[in-house]
């Protein structure tokens, strides 16, 4: 046995465990407002930070030490102060933007809490149904994607489909299937006030949040329905259908895609966003790929299997994605040149 290899692998396990603990501390920093309190970038000692936030001094002291050890905060040992660099605040204290990473801090603890249930599914089959995921997971998905929907969907992303954008500006119809808490649908309702936007999701909790958000925004061209595409009327049809980060979650992907193709108006487009992944395991042997495999096991695959689905998984890959779309009768499948570190985009036409 190679002892150096054993040591190197032990070091890797501890590094990975450190990453999990750092995400947990990130959760605490987000939920308690500590990152926001440090966002001005100035140095501050732990006791003063506790006074600023109204939090328990001993907890704040230990949190600062842990975040400094993880490299998230800078520490001046002589002055006994801590500082959140501007570049770190860009990712940690920027709620509502398309570059905020706080959704990951909610996702980690929320998903890992389901580990005992997932062990049972490994042994007995089935999976964890969507309703078993807690409110933190709903918020996590919103935080991971919502900023991009607000800042990019109606502008940069749809600029790749000028004919669709023209229809929506004149007054078209949009279906957002798997709409979640409604951020994408709300963004389109604001960007295209002449169009009718319909969001559909089987999760009643998400639909309730979406309706509350739409009501608060005062949007009259937007509606949300709890259900699936099969529950919708066949007419009128849609100029644009969105499948954003959810095709791989579907319990019946082939049938659902065929239904969506039938619901498109002549010249209509299915716009698909999926997590950026490669077709081979080797393509995904990187931090993003490992994160997505974890998301897949703890959410995407298991909730599909719980409903009798195929469990396509988060790392579906572009080749399999195109095969699914073509198999559902889409004659034209076009990858879109949208720059994104985390997602890939396709337009499909009948």
**What is the global morphology?**
globular
| Rounded mean pLDDT score | 96
Strand content: 5-15%
Which sequence of strands runs across the widest sheet? 5-4-3-6-7-9-8
In short:
The protein is an alpha/beta fold.
Question: Could you explain how this protein is built, in words?
Answer:
This protein is of the alpha/beta class. Helices cover 51% and strands 15% of the residues. The protein has a seven-stranded mixed beta sheet with strand order 5-4-3-6-7-9-8, sandwiched between helices. It has a two-stranded antiparallel ribbon with strand order 1-2. A hairpin with a 7-residue loop joins strand 8 and strand 9. Helix 3 (46-53) crosses helix 4 and helix 8 (135-157) runs parallel beside helix 10. The longest helix has 30 residues, at 3-32. The protein starts with a helix and ends with a strand. The mean pLDDT is 96.
């Amino acid at each position: 046995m190679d002892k150096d290899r054993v040591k190197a692998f032990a070091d890797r396990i501890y590094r990975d465990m450190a990453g999990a603990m750092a995400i947990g501390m990130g959760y605490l920093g987000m939920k308690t407002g500590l990152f926001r309190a440090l966002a001005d970038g100035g140095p501050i000692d732990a006791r003063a930070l506790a006074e600023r936030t109204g939090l328990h001094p001993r907890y704040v002291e230990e949190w600062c030490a842990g975040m400094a050890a993880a490299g998230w905060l800078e520490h001046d040992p002589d002055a006994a102060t801590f500082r959140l660099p501007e570049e770190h605040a860009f990712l940690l204290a920027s709620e509502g933007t398309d570059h905020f990473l706080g959704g990951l801090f909610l996702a980690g603890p929320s998903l890992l809490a389901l580990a005992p249930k997932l062990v049972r599914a490994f042994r007995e089959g089935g999976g964890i149904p969507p309703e078993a995921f807690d409110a933190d997971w709903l918020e996590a998905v919103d935080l991971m994607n919502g900023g991009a929907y607000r800042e990019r969907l109606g502008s940069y992303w749809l600029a790749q489909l000028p004919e669709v954008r023209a229809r929506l500006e004149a007054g078209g119809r949009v279906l957002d299937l798997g709409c979640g808490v409604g951020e994408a649908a709300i963004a389109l309702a604001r960007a295209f006030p002449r169009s009718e936007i319909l969001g559909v999701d089987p999760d009643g909790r998400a639909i309730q949040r979406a309706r509350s958000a739409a009501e608060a925004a005062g949007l009259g061209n937007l509606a949300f329905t709890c259900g699936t595409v099969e529950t919708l009327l066949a007419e009128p049809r849609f100029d644009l259908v969105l499948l954003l980060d959810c095709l791989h979650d579907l319990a019946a992907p082939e049938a659902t895609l065929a239904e969506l193709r039938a619901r498109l108006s002549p010249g209509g487009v299915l716009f698909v966003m999926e997590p950026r992944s490669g077709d081979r395991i080797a393509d995904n042997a990187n931090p993003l790929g490992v994160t997505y495999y974890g998301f897949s096991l703890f959410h995407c695959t298991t909730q599909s299997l719980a409903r009798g689905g195929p469990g396509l998984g988060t790392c579906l890959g572009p080749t399999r994605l195109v095969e699914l779309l073509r198999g559902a009768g889409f004659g034209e499948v076009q990858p879109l040149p949208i720059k994104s570190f985390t997602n890939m985009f396709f337009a499909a036409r009948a």
